[in-house]
Design brief:
The complex is a heterodimer of chains A (108) and B (392). Chain A is mostly helical and 108 residues long. Chain A has helices at 2-22, 36-48, 56-59, 65-76, 88-106. Chain B has helices at residues 2-18, 142-145, 195-199, and strands spanning 27-40, 57-69, 74-83, 86-99, 102-109, 156-167, 171-180, 213-225, 228-240, 248-260, 263-277, 298-315, 318-330, 339-357, 360-374, 380-391. The chains are: A mainly alpha (108), B mainly beta (392). At the A-B interface, helix 1, helix 3 and helix 4 of A face strand 1, strand 6, strand 7, strand 8 and strand 9 of B.
């Protein structure tokens, strides 16, 4: 039985090592790759919008700016969201920029 | 009189038809999650096979959610889940947002309770198994303990009022109060909530008694610094769960969340006091304290659970998670029960989340269970999970 357990542990460890080596990026964006005037808004977005779900959700959504306004408002009013009204302008500034530059950003 | 009424009706219709009709721009969004998880539990020739006490091997969970923004203030949500027990309705509700402080939610939804409720989707929490207070079916020995304190997701029919209010730039309050059908058991002489009946469409997705259950949550979020937040919350839920609405349950919860930079620390404590039908000493293993010369009508069991969890990114695509959680049941038991009067679990979990590509992750974890109060003499178990997640 111990041999069977060890075999399974080695398979898992090998998969993990392969994953670390093969993966090119996390689910967020690399702040240093963003324009300087966007980085602060991105950090705000990444901090507020990863509490309840991963950043893959908003970054994978192909919404236009008008849609983001409705969506961020809906997220802000979810119980225990942690998103303050004062956070909204910065979050929307980043999402507006992301909507316009998504194709080039996703390719990085 | 009739002539005047007819004139008024014609005028009213004319006004309505003449008014410009605003085109409704209805927006749809579709999202989903797919998780495939493999649970391995070592066993020996002397141990019973894991399948006698847990859902080991492959399990899959698929969820599809549609959100419809009818207007800026009205949203409808529907979610279908497919998992260990087939198709379930995860949500089917509408939100009407009148103001920050006032949103009405009605339909079928998960009532606000605690902090984990918002993250019950497999894509939204980092480990394969939920914290023990909220465990639904991945915990070991789930049948012995009849699941947990509040298996998540707890989905019910009803209405909820919720809102939020900012106190300056650093403090935000939020609240929610709900009235829902409540937990269920198929009898007027229950031992505990029947969680299979709770989520099953058979016989019906309706209340088993005429008494709705009530509850709510209040929370405060404090912005400690630019990238540091602290949230505290308290939750309550009360109702009756037997067919004659006599046996009460009370669920209390406290939650805390601290974020410093990219490190997340979460902790919750839940307690559920559930009345069981007494009636006859033969229903219980331990002696009942007589009331009025006979067996008491109600006997209470108390189960509580807790977890403390730390998530720490170590690489850009790798998070490490350490969790300590537990579950405890204290109370009289039915004859033949596998539990003593005081029985429980303490579990340590070490896990990792590896991002393969945005939206695609691997989850791996190892769990060590310590038990007390199991009459079969089992004192510990090991388990390992390996899962793949896709969110879209």
């Amino acid at each position: 039985m111990l041999a069977a357990v060890m075999r399974r542990v080695l398979v898992v460890a090998a998969l993990a090592a392969w994953g670390c080596a093969a993966a090119r990026r996390g689910e967020g964006l690399e702040p240093s790759a963003l324009p300087a005037n966007v980085r602060g808004d991105y950090e705000l977005f990444a901090s507020r919008c990863s509490r309840c779900h991963s950043l893959a959700r908003p970054l994978g959504s192909n919404f236009d700016p008008a849609r983001w306004r409705v969506y961020v408002e809906r997220m802000r009013l979810q119980p225990a969201s942690g998103i303050a009204l004062s956070d909204v302008p910065g979050i929307l500034r980043f999402l507006d920029w992301y909507s316009a530059h998504r194709a080039e950003v996703v390719g990085r | 009189m009739k002539h005047r009424a007819l004139v008024l009706l014609v005028v009213a219709l004319s006004v309505l038809l003449a008014a410009p009709l605003r085109a409704l721009a209805i927006e749809y969004s579709l999202a989903g999650t797919l998780q495939l998880d493999y649970l391995f539990v070592p066993f020996s020739r002397d141990d019973p096979r894991p399948s006698t006490h847990t859902l080991d091997g492959f399990t899959e969970e698929l969820s599809l959610k549609v959100a419809v923004d009818v207007t800026d203030h009205v949203t409808a949500n529907a979610k279908v889940c497919y998992g260990c027990h087939g198709f379930e309705v995860g949500m089917a509700y509408a939100d009407v947002r009148l103001a920050d402080a006032l949103t009405f939610r009605f339909g079928r939804f998960s009532p606000s309770f605690g902090e984990f409720t918002l993250r019950h989707d497999p894509a939204n929490h980092r480990l394969s198994d939920k914290p023990l207070p909220y465990d639904m079916g991945r915990m070991l020995r789930l049948t012995d303990f009849n699941r947990s304190v509040l298996p998540s997701p707890y989905v019910d029919n009803g209405v909820e009022v919720l809102g939020t209010h900012s106190l300056g730039r650093r403090v935000q309050l939020d609240w929610a109060a709900h009235v829902v059908a409540g937990m269920r058991a198929p009898t007027d002489a229950p031992y505990d909530v029947d969680f299979t009946l709770q989520r099953s469409a058979s016989p019906y997705y309706i209340d088993n008694n005429d008494q709705p259950s009530v509850g709510g949550r209040v929370g405060v979020n404090v912005r400690l610094a630019e990238r540091a937040d602290l949230s505290l919350g308290a939750s309550v839920m009360w109702g009756t769960y037997d067919t004659r609405a006599r046996m009460q349950y009370l669920v209390l919860g406290a939650d805390a969340y601290l974020r410093v930079g990219r490190t997340n620390v979460r902790a919750e404590y839940l307690l559920r006091r559930t009345e069981m039908y007494g009636g006859d000493q033969g229903r219980f293993d331990y002696a009942l304290i007589p009331e009025g010369g006979g067996a008491p009508e109600r006997v209470a069991q108390v189960r509580d659970g807790w977890y403390v969890e730390v998530e720490q990114p170590v690489l850009r695509n790798l998070d490490v998670i350490l969790r300590w959680d537990g579950l405890r049941r204290r109370g009289n038991v039915a004859p033949g029960s596998t539990l003593d009067f005081d029985a429980g679990i303490s579990r340590w979990t070490l896990g990792a989340n590896l991002v393969i590509e945005r939206g695609y992750r691997l989850k791996a974890s190892v769990e060590h269970y310590s038990y007390w109060g199991l009459r079969n003499g089992v004192t510990w178990d090991l388990a390992a999970h390996l899962g793949a997640i896709a969110s879209f």
